[in-house]
Amino acid sequence: MEIVWQTPANPPERQDYIFHKGRHLVRPYYFEFISRVKNRWAGKTVVDFFAQEFKGRPYDYYVSAVQCGRIQVDGETVPVSYILRPSQKISHFLHRHEPPVMASDVTVLVEEPDVVTVCKPASVPVHPCGQYRKNTVVGILQAEHGLAPLFPVHRLDRLVSGLLILARNATKADLFRQQIEGGMLQKQYIAKVVGTFPEKELLVDIGIYYNHREGRSTVEAGDSCRDTPTKGKTASTKFTRISSNGTHSIVLCEPVTGRTHQIRVHLQYTGHPIANDMLYLSEYVDNRSDVGMSADRAAGKSLIPETNNMYVDDCEETCSKNFSIDPMCTQCPNLAPTGYEEHEEGLWLHCIRYSGPGWKYECPYPG
């Protein structure tokens, strides 16, 4: 079998995707990861570098990958004892399995010469990141609608749904960037939260610190009497209750700033976290369903839940015929990477409106 190696320059195509049991999957493909040796990596052997920096695969895999040329340095096969030097090019040729996402459509709302707006489904990342490349909003729009290049104007967390604005050229993207940096945009989301939210408008004006290692944010009020500066960034969100049934409330959320997980952590601070947000709900709710727990696996939990064996077996039987098994791949014969469950639900947070000087884009409310 002749192997065709893909790079980020290869566009996603319709035939790359498989729909299975309500999920959107990508056929595994051969891909070349390229990076440059950073100063902190220099002095390590090529195998030790991969084993320490990319712990998702066993040490023996990296030894074999170097020996057979799946891992190269400056385009050349090297021994496993090879010592890396700064700025060298490292290529890792591997059989790539992308995580699945929920199989909701990426609906195009507005298509203009300079702008495209879509209704982003929950669980789909906006752009290539981590293990996702084709299973992203940008990838799906390119494959299904031929829309490229696209420049996301703002970000939505993977599990958040709703309005997403994408510029179609760098000039328009830069104009949006200037308006964002100038504080000229108004943003509106709706959330379903725990309990009866206060009836009066509530402004939460409290700093947020995002811990990259833990993948979560915390509020940080600060103390003018302390000499130690706070790590957090200023953040402000306005909340207005739309309705309540005594158990849950629907709340309009208007972030003034744009910090990571800002709405989610500010709602937690009010005592009314998003009702299925397990990353910020744990101290309020004891009865956590398996489905709820999976809703925020990628939002910051470092531990990957156990794989649903029935789902894996079904994927092997139904889907493995759709791609070639690679003998060196640590993920084959499964279609999805190891550790991804069948069930996942979106966060009950939905972007409905963005507006700026002379423009406004909207997205339908969720059911």
From TrEMBL:
Catalytic activity, as annotated: a uridine in RNA = a pseudouridine in RNA
GO MF annotation, one: RNA binding
Domain Pseudouridine synthase RsuA/RluA-like: 114-268
Active site feature: D157
Known EC number: 5.4.99.-
Keywords: Isomerase, RNA-binding
InterPro entries: PsdUridine_synth_cat_dom_sf, PsdUridine_synth_RluA-like_CS, PsdUridine_synth_RluC/D, PsdUridine_synth_RsuA/RluA, RluA_PseudoU_synthase
Signal sequence interval, chain numbering: none
GO terms of biological process kind: enzyme-directed rRNA pseudouridine synthesis
Pfam family, one: PseudoU_synth_2
Similarity remark: Belongs to the pseudouridine synthase RluA family.
Primary role: Responsible for synthesis of pseudouridine from uracil.
Name listed for the protein in its UniProt record: Pseudouridine synthase
